[in-house]
Specification:
- The structure holds 2 protein chains of 2 kinds.
- By secondary structure, chain A is an all-beta fold.
- Chain A has no helices and 1 strand.
- By secondary structure, chain B is α+β, with helices and mostly antiparallel strands.
- In chain B, helix 1 runs antiparallel to helix 2 and helix 1 runs antiparallel to helix 4.
- Strand 1 of chain A pairs antiparallel with strand 18 of chain B.
């Protein structure tokens, strides 16, 4: 199973 | 006094081809160094950064820093009306951005400035283990090869190759590109092809294209103009295995 991550953890 | 003149509007046009497909609204900041914008899409999957240095413009007058908030779709409709040999002029009048294209005929568009609904965070700086260059046309063609079998793609960089791989329901595909860079670590991450295609809409912008990658890290795609007069970069969040 895959899921799309967001960029929030990089800010 | 605010007036920018660019003898090649295609830089603007090709940037906004990609930007307008990613975000609905942007804040364009202009000061004495140049023009820049940072934006992130509503789902926080793709971040875009555009920077055009003052020296790229034929005329650059900006006495005090200015922020121009525009609807990207509206601006794109206007930019599509430019021809490559037009000269583009940007000025501001009241609550509008005035865009003029002058070639065989002169066209003037007034694009209303808007109130932004949300703030964009500053560009994050991420340390990457791997960075290579690739002609953007090669990257585009590789993605077109992969997308016939699947809607996501694995980027895999080792010391010799960038490999793009996909496993589809009926077919698999793998594209190998000999990158010729000094790479000491391997890196692997998976991305949605739809998002990569949005970034590649800016293909005509680039003289040089860089890919930065790390294991399950965001993909950074950087398009750079000659003499570092301009840069368009994208950051794309990966898909990860649960």
């Amino acid at each position: 199973k895959q899921r799309q991550t967001t960029l929030d953890m990089f800010f | 006094m605010f007036k920018l003149i660019l003898s090649d509007p295609s830089i603007f046009k090709t940037s906004f081809e990609a930007i307008s497909s990613i975000v609905d609204e942007v804040q364009i900041e202009v000061d004495s160094d140049g023009l820049r914008l940072n934006a992130i899409d509503r789902s926080h999957i793709t971040y875009v950064h555009l920077e055009l240095k003052e020296r790229l413009f034929d005329v650059f007058q900006c006495d005090e820093p200015i922020k121009l908030n525009v609807d990207t779709e509206e601006l794109m409709k206007v930019l599509k009306r430019s021809k490559s040999d037009d000269v583009m002029e940007l000025t501001v009048d009241g609550g509008s951005l005035i865009v003029t294209f002058e070639g065989a005929i002169k066209k003037t568009f007034k694009v209303k400035l808007i109130d932004l609904e949300y703030e964009t965070p500053e560009s994050p700086s991420i340390e990457y283990p791997v960075k290579i260059t690739i002609p953007i046309k090669t990257l585009k063609e590789s993605i077109q090869d992969i997308e016939i079998v699947a809607d996501r793609v694995e980027f895999n960089i080792d010391q010799d190759f960038l490999k793009l791989k996909a496993v589809g329901e009926f077919s698999d595909a793998e594209v190998e590109y000999l990158h010729g860079e000094k790479v000491t670590e391997d890196a692997r991450a998976i991305f949605a092809i739809e998002n990569i295609k949005e970034m590649l809409k800016a293909e005509k912008f680039a003289d040089t294209t860089y890919i930065s990658l790390g294991d399950d890290m965001p993909l950074t795609l950087t398009l750079e103009l000659l003499n570092e007069e301009g840069e368009l970069s994208f950051l794309l969040a990966p898909r990860i295995e649960e």
